[in-house]
Write a structure and sequence with these properties.
- This protein has about 240 residues and is an alpha+beta fold.
- The protein has 2 domains: about 5-70, 434 Repressor (Amino-terminal Domain); about 70-235, Umud Fragment, subunit A (Ribbon), CATH 2.10.109.
- It is about 30% helix and about 25% strand.
- It has helices spanning about 5-20, 25-30, 35-45, 50-60, 70-75, 80-85, 115-120, 145-150, and strands at about 85-90, 110-115, 135-140, 155-165, 180-185, 185-195, 200-205, 210-215, 225-235.
- The chain has a 7-stranded antiparallel β-sheet with strand order 3-4-9-5-6-7-8, covered by helices on one side. A two-stranded antiparallel ribbon has the order 1-2.
- Helix 2 crosses helix 3 (about 35-45).
- The longest helix has 17 residues, at about 5-20.
């Protein structure tokens, strides 16, 4: 992957977060010390970024360069010994199995995806549903139709890393809403969660999609619906 490819990936990621309402292009340019006109030109593919500017943006987004690289690309360029020591295999499961307590059987695991152990250790849990005995991280893949609806129109799919031990509705980062994976009536959905009375409210990431409601009528409360917090999204284009 070339430096230009990394800049293109970062550009897409910034656009996604702007669309998601995490910040504006103007706010981001101010926070990382880049002129607003420069940021606008970058986001509109009219110019690139210096290494220093790119590093400041990565730090602001709380990601590393490897987060811009497809996991398959990392796997092709990484030796088996490096994978064994620096990476952890996270299982890919379907939505119907994603709320299963504990681990998964071999026939429930579709494949595995490697994530850096240092990155996973950095993620903070906030478990209010007593899931300490559950396998913490799982991966869910979105089909092309769902990925295009929720993310980029040209997306061919998306891979979501889910922390099943982050079940609190408290914000992970200050002034930024958490993105959750939930299971509603046997279909998975991604969005921002809140509770009103006995209703769980899911506000889709794409504001053009309808809000979904789930009646909380089980002893387990809303935990019956929440798979976990979305920690990382890799979009296939």
């Amino acid at each position: 992957m070339s430096f230009q490819d990394l800049q293109d990936k970062l550009r897409l990621l910034i656009r996604e977060r702007i669309k998601g309402g995490e910040f504006t292009g103007t706010a981001l340019s101010y926070q990382v010390g880049i002129q607003q006109s420069h940021m606008s030109n970058y986001l509109n593919s009219r110019r690139g970024l210096s290494l220093e500017s790119m590093d400041r943006i990565l730090d602001r987004l709380d990601i590393g360069v490897l987060d811009l690289v497809d996991s398959a690309e990392i796997g092709r360029r990484t030796s088996p010994s490096m994978v064994a020591t620096d990476f952890e295999e996270i299982v890919v499961v379907s939505a119907e199995w994603s709320l299963q307590p504990g681990g998964f059987s071999s026939d429930q695991i579709r494949e595995t995806v490697n994530y850096k152990k240092a990155y996973l250790r950095k993620l903070k849990p906030n478990d209010v549903c007593h899931r300490s005995h559950w396998l913490r991280f799982v991966v869910i893949r979105l089909d092309p139709r769902t990925a295009r609806t929720m993310y980029e129109p040209e997306a061919r799919g998306a891979t979501l890393l889910i922390d099943r031990q982050y079940t609190s509705l408290d914000a992970y980062r200050q002034r930024r809403p958490n993105l959750y994976a939930v299971l509603l009536q046997s279909h998975s959905a991604i969005g921002y969660l809140s509770i009103s009375g006995q209703d769980l409210i899911l506000r889709p990431r794409n504001p053009l999609l309808p809000i979904e409601l789930a009646r909380i009528d089980r002893p387990t409360g809303y935990a019956h619906y929440v798979i976990g917090r979305v920690c990382h999204v890799a979009i296939e284009v």
